[in-house]
Amino acid sequence: MTDRAPQPVERRLPTEESRQLVELVRDIVSKEIAPRTAEEEEAGVFPREVFSLLSESGLLGLPYGSAHGGGDQPYEVYLQVLEELAAARLTVGLGVSVHSLACHALAGFGTDDQRAAHLPDMLSGGLLGAYCLSEPASGSDAASLRTKAVRDGDDWVITGTKAWITHGGIADFYTVLARTGVEGARGITAFLVPGDAEGLNAAIPEKKMGMKGSPTAQLHFDGVRVGDDRRIGEEGQGFAIALSALDSGRLGIAACAVGVAQAALDEAVRYATDRRQFGRPIADFQGLRFMLADMATQIEAGRALYLEAARLRDAGQPFSRQAAMAKLFCTDAAMRVTIDAVQVLGGYGYTLDFPAERLMREAKVLQIVEGTNQIQRMVIARHLAGPETR
Description:
four-stranded mixed β-sheet
């Protein structure tokens, strides 16, 4: 065996509390997540008990205020926790990111009464959330969504179908964007819908290339009735709320991508230093050494990019452009790094006996979710050159 086994990432954390937090995450990963990842992902098992443990440990509400059960942690810390979780199992890391996204609307735009009534259970009470924006016919063009919410006295009646919903069918609550007014972005409103609402049904989960343990499903709203006290923000404010959430959510995807890439690099280094050919480790050969060096450089660059965007967010400065850049770069890098990791392992990389092939399949979805990377390029270009002329 080699003495050059990959070491934990050296993290620059702002406080002793945040350092202890990362150590807690690493302990949970080593004992409760990593030993079961390969088996449960292959079997398509969702680790609900892991999310319960994360909630009990205060890890599902890290970037939110302690007044309602959150962790009061800056995004700089929260994202590094996501990276650690995603490196062990993307189903968990991405699941925490989606849960945080589902909490964003209420935490940022809800009334004091709404936050007091719902946030404690959402952040630290064992509940799991999902975010409902996309539809079968409106993905990247989210402003054209068709799901409707019609006022009926003190209630709203929601009818329509949402698609590609992570945790669809198993979530305890859904943040739902529905049309309450005119066509386009100005006619959309946000609602908080209980997972057990009458008339809410999930389709059979999608059969996916990767992340088999994370259920992704359509949700059908057949006259789902919710009170006006579950409307978040003003009527017509929903699309602005959604965009605000997605800026932060993109940073979560970037951190998850770096975690997946780091796991792939660690596996490649481990294999290359153990595997011997022609009388020496294959890591001695320049072609592989350069591959490993390029992989590591892409990971470090991606980590620096998402952390810089997080620090802007923590400082209350605009970060939308940097979030799009981080999502774009980190997920593209994860795809390249995981492909190279399979190549380093050769034939073994193509088998289920090693995690490289699973990491490669998982990396692909990160280039698609929460705004495809083509959409990220559009967002970045608009910041540079202004809106497209029509």
